[in-house]
Amino acid sequence: MPLPEPEGYAELVRRWLATFGPGTEADIVWWLGATKGAVRRALADVGAVSVTLDGGGTGWVLADDLDEEDPVEPWAALLPTLDPTVMGWKERGFYLDPADVPYLFDTNGNAGNTAWWDGRVVGCWVQDDDAAVRVLLRHDLGEEARAALDAQAERLTAWLDGVRIVNVYASPQMKGLELT
User: For residue 40, what is the domain's CATH number?
Assistant: First the structure.
């Protein structure tokens, strides 16, 4: 049975915060395609708590999500086009160098395949003619990062077992385009 509109927005915002929080009001408005009024009402309805984000902005979390996270070791990941991890926020500066956006996203904000190192998008991945995965980095990250990302590329190549992925939302970097 469909929920009344305010309850529906509250449930969507609760689930968004549980998955992506902390996030800004702008993030939630963008993700939902909702009005600021609907988002503000939903934040109040779920008892969201405001927090100060790195950089000084205001974000929102669920009341039971206030504990500090333990630090983790550096990690590498290769994520597919439009993965929720990269598409969850409008304001992406905490995980992406703004100068890299035109290379890794299309003009509508859709992400292509992304390569991540230690919580940040650092490039993309593509497949060559033999379906082998290759990582294309935007910057020199050092040997540890390169080795970890290459290991993920080998792992993904083996898992795909010759299957070539076709991307509707291929980013300019994935297409090999040089932007000026």
Answer: 1.10.10.10
Residue 180 banded pLDDT, cuts 50, 70, 90: very low
Question: Is residue 128, in this structure, part of any structural domain at all?
Answer: yes
- The yes-or-no verdict on residue 25 having pLDDT over 70 is yes
Q: How confident is the model at residue 177 (pLDDT cuts 50, 70, 90)?
A: low
Q: What total number of domains does the chain contain?
A: 2
Give the Cβ contact number of residue 146 at 10 Å: 15
Residue 27 lies in a domain: yes
How does the average pLDDT of the chain come out, rounded? 90
Torsions phi, psi for 10 (to 5 deg): -60, -45
Domain membership of residue 147 as a residue range: 76-160
Element (H, E) at 21: none
- The secondary structure of 65-108 as a DSSP string is --SPPPP----EEEE-TT-HHHHS-S--TTTS-GGGHHHHB-TT
Q: Please report whether residue 111 resides in a domain.
A: yes
**How many secondary structure helices (H) and strands (E) does the chain include?**
6, 6
Whether 173 is covered by a domain: the verdict is: no
